[in-house]
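input
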Amino acid sequence: MCIMLKLLVLFVVMTVCKAKEETWAFVGNPLLAAYPCNGSDDISLSYEPGLPPGEENQYYLYINKQVPVSTKIEMEFDSEASIILSESTKSNARISSRNGVFTIRFFREADSVNFQVKGPKRGTIPYFKSLKINTQEYCDEPNVGFLDRYIEGYQDTAAVSLSVPDGCGRRKVEHTELIVAGQLSKPGDWPWHVAIYKRDRANIKYICGGTLISKAVVLTAAHCVTLTGVPVVPEILSVILGKYNLIGGDLETQEREVLSVIAHEDFAPKRFLENDIALLKLKSEATYSDYVQPACIWYSQAYERLPTNKVFGTVVGWGFDQTDTLSTQLQQSSMPKISDAKCIKKNPLFYGNVLNNNKKFCAGYANGTSACNGDSGGGFVVFVPDTAKDDAPNAQGSWYVRGIVSMTASRKDVAICDPHQYVVFTDVAKYTGWIKRHMEN
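output
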């Protein structure tokens, strides 16, 4: 069954400006009007996009019904919410809340009901789960998520690319056509994925993944290559390119020593890994081959070439599997990028604090398939076709790094990832200027 969401645009004139040429222009944001409950035109809302962060997760709700004395309206929402009655409504009614249910009781009759619904400052928008008027349900089929795309949050970085990157993100060997979550990859499928090792006394230990983005630079997470927020000395790190088997048996690998470790200057390990991004500069350049190739760095116009409005990426690594041990062969998992609101509603306490500066994003299905311990630092890579909107199975194109595996919520019993939670990625799109600046220096 297909449910059509009714969405209207109401232009509201807030200020009128007169230009020198005697022309006029509207100033102010257009209001969006919608029906939050399918099949009920008596309940509508208005929403103003473009408000400042922390204020854009609110709307005004209208119930266009005559309300007799002693009427009781009960409402439940899918996330944390607060309600403020309008001047006209509060003169006729009182509101209270208990156990997640809001109740409006009318001591006078009213021609309609108006109030403001606000979400928490984290940016989620509350949607109806239920709306009962005198025990009768008026919201059997609530619309959810339809305003999430208007949440902009903080945006302090922008970039314009005038050309499509060339010579990166392309496989050189025949690859698996269909990618299934949790499936084994094949040698050469992901020639830009690298293994990062750290020397601990007499032992050399695999610690994280990374992405080769040029012959001499690897992109990874800052928490992989720092100690209490300070970059480790490069001499204790090494990188292996073209690796497939975590322990031996590879067709063609290249080991490189690390010349320098560049962690983001504002990396904050104690503040939910803010700015969790780093570059490793190699002592000697990689040699490109069938099994070693660079990935492309995301650029803003790539969105226009994707087959759909949804962003699907692939994460690969040797991270913990169902047995809570490192995988011996490179695994791959395809997952969608999701909205911050959907992510926060999954686990408000964790994701509400992590997604606090608009420089991370969530992805995944929360169904048991996830990036896990050992996958940190690896890329969330997105296939961008050469021909815009080409969705053919054999489409030609390149793979772009859209994110870096940063963290996820852990299980309650042990400090290991919970595969039923979403994965949090550093948003590479917000750091393209930082990456290019340090690559050139």
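quick obs: The helical segments are 87-90, 340-346, 348-354, 432-440.
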